[in-house]
Design a protein that fits this description.
- The protein is built from 3 helices and 8 strands.
- By secondary structure, it is an alpha+beta fold.
- It has 2 domains: 64 residues; 78 residues, PH-domain like (Roll), CATH 2.30.29.
- The longest helix is centred in the N-terminal third of the chain and has 23 residues.
- The mean pLDDT is 89.
């Protein structure tokens, strides 16, 4: 049994967000162009407005195609297989991982797996900020693999 999930995946494309992104960028460029055409001084606040609107427009444009903007900065995933458990909850979070042969027992508390290693130290796998249905799926996969490997588990 295996669970592999990309936490940053966007399931569907959005034509509305693509148009919104293009519209925001055009509005921002139009603001600067309008100030220039009217022979007004383009102040720092105008450039700030342009930059902010352009970035928001770019954000909506990229995500409209079904690409997560967060993926530009890193990964967030869950990988549970017969060899290891690897969880990275967010782009800026640290990866939590442990090999199955390093597990003596597993204890589940709300949103946390406490894993006892053979040297009597604990590894804590945190599941905060994950959907309830995904946590249930993780618990089921870990329970199934733990039973196959003879690892005691308390859920």
């Amino acid at each position: 049994m295996q669970l592999k999930r990309d936490l940053l995946k966007i399931e569907r494309k959005s034509f509305f967000r693509i148009i919104l992104g293009i519209g925001l960028f055009i509005s921002a460029a139009g603001w600067i162009l309008g100030r220039h055409i009217d022979n007004q001084i383009v102040k720092i606040i105008d450039w700030y407005f342009f930059g902010t609107m352009a970035i928001i427009g770019l954000f909506h444009f990229i995500e409209g195609f079904g690409i997560s903007f967060s993926k530009l900065f890193g990964k967030a995933y869950i990988l549970i297989d017969d060899d290891q458990i690897r969880i990275k909850n967010g782009v800026f979070e640290n990866e939590q991982s442990i090999l199955w042969h390093d597990i003596k027992s597993i204890k589940y508390k709300p949103n946390i797996f406490q894993i006892l290693k053979p040297d009597q130290t604990y590894v804590v796998l945190k599941l905060q900020d994950l959907e309830y249905s995904l946590i249930r799926e993780i618990k089921e996969v870990i329970r199934t693999i733990a039973q196959e490997k003879g690892v005691p588990i308390l859920l």
